Every structure is written in structure tokens, then in C-alpha cells.
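Self-study notes.
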Amino acid sequence: MASRDENNPYGDAQDLLQDSQQLEDSVEVVDQIEAGSTVLDNESVADGGYESDSATSASTSVSSSIWDFSFENGRRYHKFREGRYNFPNDDVEQEREDMKHAMVKLLCQKLHFAPIGDNPHEILDVGTGTGIWAIEMGDAYPSANVLGVDLSPIQPQWVPPNVRFMVDDVESEWLHPLNHFDYIHSRHTIMAIKDWDQLLMTSYEHLKPGGWLELQEIYHFPMSSNNTLEEDHPVAQYWKYVDEGLESLGVDFRFSDEGRIAALMRQCGYINVTERVFHIPIGTWPKNKTLKSVGLYWKKILLDGIQAIALGPMTRGLHWGREEVETFLVSVRKGYHDNSLLLYMPLVCVYGQKPGGQ
């Protein structure tokens, strides 16, 4: 099912960026004490059929603990399960995440590829971030209950009536019963998940027979269309250091390499596994107008996030000092502006089905 306004991807992407700047990161929490998570439930209907969250049943102690963000090297990080995710969640990073969503939609022309039908009932978004994908899915599928799960309560207050958010760790025990979801989606979580085997199995168990799992992940190690990127180039070194830092923190940053996700899904029992790979240019070097726009987005996203991406892995994982990181980033910023390298990164989209069903 394609997203709205597919015939005008450029306007659609621009609208997404404008909408993302209007998203407010103010939500209230409803306690799920026994499970160690926090559910953000919608209780009061507001204008336009959208709803806001109510604090009438919120636990004061849990609420305050969820909002106790951690600050490090001048950036804000999540406090719940502190250290599970090594990247900021502040306003600057949220704007960048919404821009990533716009870029992927412009490139893929769809919110998803899995053939979930016209009337799915239960949809889960793993690592929902700002919640923008979940919100658009709620609009696109009014038949579905859409749940977004993340470590940070940064989702907007105004959401469609069939969308809600939960603060939880998806690598912990899930609250929902087995055979519950029609569709489970995850995107841009490659830098966060430590045990993909377990997550894929947990997803499998909680899918209904015939349900679908879809992962969309970028392989962040730049490639050169004319084979001119050297190993000692600052951009190549940058991602090498990020990879090494994440590895020391227990994250396999290379799991998004072509074929790996699909192979593990088949190993876990999924059928009809399909992999689609898109190339995301870095910069405006492609001749194709859509790819040129995608490349402009992606280059800005990478430059805007150059510090956010580096600080956690390189200070926590490699034990660099902040000044050492900032000094190194000067050369990386210059490196991104070299269009002659024809750089790109693969976007690997994989979806598979749980056997059974009609």
C-alpha cells in the first residue's frame, strides 16, 4: 500500500519536513508498573479526530523517571534503560530523524513493502522514534491499531485515534500475547539492537500466522560508484570508528549488509522472505532528479548528524575525548563535500512472513 500523494514525491517530502517541525515532544505517561514499561494511551478526543494523552491515571514517580533525560557532551540522551541506545534524542536529532523519514519515502515511494492487505488490525513499530511512521500508518490504515515502541517519550501529543505509543525496551519481554500482530515494522534500528536473533524470534512468536515482519536498514559504510574512496579518507575512517565503538558496546553495526538480515529471517522460520536494495546517494551527483533530491537530503542528514552519530560510539566505546572527536570531525565534514567520489549507501529492505493463516 503506497503512502499518500505518491504522484508528487517532492512536494510530499517537503510537506513532511514542515510537519516534522510542528511536532511537539510533550506526552503524558500511563504506568505499566509490573511490566517495567510505560504506555502512552489516548483518552480524550480533540479537533480533527486526533487525540491527546491524558495524565489522569499516570504514576507521578514513573512519569518523573521517564522524563529524567541524561545529558552528556552537550547532548540529551534517554534515561529509561540508560545506555541501551548510544545516540541523542534532543530536538535537533528529532528533526533529523523526521528528515530521514522524508528521504526514505521519497526514495521508496511507500511506507512499507510487505503485502499486509487493505485492512490490517494490529501493527507494531519497533523503535518508533518521533512516531512519524506510526502516525502516517494510522492515517493510511484506519482499520488498524498502531503501536509505536521506543526508549524515549519523544512522540507528539496529537495523534490519530488509532495510534498510541509505549516507552519500553523491545529486547526485554514483550507485554502483548503471542500471535497478536498482523505486521511488525522496524527501521533505522541497526545501531541499537544487540541481539537480532532474539528480536526476530520474539517478533515471530508475536506475529499472527500469516503476519509479516519488515526491516528497513541502511548499510552505513560508504561505497563509491567509481571506486575512488580510499580507506584513509576521513569519511571512510569516520564510519570505521563508529563501527568499532559500537562493536565495543555490543552492537553489530554491519548486520545490515546485503543478505544477512534475510538469511537470519529464514533461519528463524520466516517464509516468502524478500530483500530489496536501494542506493542512497550522498550528494547531488546522480543525474536522476529523484535520486538527486534524495542525495541532497541524505548529505544534509549526515552532516547535521555528524556529531550526534560520533559522540556516543567514540567517547563511550573508544574512550576518545570530546575535543578529540570534534577535531576529527572537521576533516570529515570537508570529505562529505567531495562529489567526485560518487558516494552512496545501500538501504536494505527485507520482509518475511510467518507460516500459516489463510
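Second protein, same conventions, sequence then structure:
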Amino acid sequence: MSETAQQPVFSIEKLYVKDLSIEVPNAPQIYLERETPQVNVQLRTDSRPLDEGVFEVKLTVTVTAQLGEDKTVFLVEVAQGGIFQIRNVPTEELEPIMMIGCANILFPYAREVISDAITRAGFQPVILAPVNFEALYQQNRQQQAASVQ
């Protein structure tokens, strides 16, 4: 085998919005509210192989704004997908590459879709703060290890 055949390969094949939904269950009355809603953000990253060395990574971001305990202002969810070519990488490094590296690539696109959808729904845009996907990955690994014991 030639030396170049063993070089790690990482490339972005395609970035896309896989799913997008927005709900404003209390419209139109909610637009008359003057109170500032509480905003909750949830993130989830999933991956699956598509072909030899080709993977789909999906970052799902859910943003919920509520007034009090029971009044939803809006709920937006985007599944930002990407197809990535990842080759000649040790198996144990695949998961961190997808859950950290690919998630870092997908996040700015998901953040833009979220902000745009909320604005189109008639609200002030929500600009999501940067996310430390490495810390999230480590935290999830620790939780998985604790639940196994």
C-alpha cells in the first residue's frame, strides 16, 4: 500500500436541514404578552454509517420559550444533518470525531436556522451561545459509565 492510502481522511460531503418544526401554540394572544420568557435549549447528536467510511451526523437543537410553568411561547426544533467522509481513523477515534468535530461544524448552521425560524414566527431572534461539544461528550461518557455500574 502506498503511504497516501493510510492518511486519515475527513471531508464534508453535504450539509442540510433534515427536519425543522416551529410551534406557537398560544398565538395570537401570546404576542400581547410583555413578560420575558424563559428559554431552554436542548442538544442531541446522533450518527450512523451510510457506507464504508461515510457517515451521517445529525445535531438536533430544541429551543423552548415559556412564560411561567405552563404557557409555551414557542418551540423550535431543527435537525441539522451532515454527511461526512471519515477514513483511515482508528475505530476508537470515530465517535469523538463525529460527536465533537462534526457537531462543531453543524452547530453554526443549526443556530442560524433556529434564529431565522424564531424571527419568522414574529419573535426577537434567539442567538444560541457557543457550545463546548467536547465537554458535553465527556459528560455523556461519564453518565453512561455511571449507569453501567
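Instructor comment on the second fold: The longest strand covers residues 71-87.
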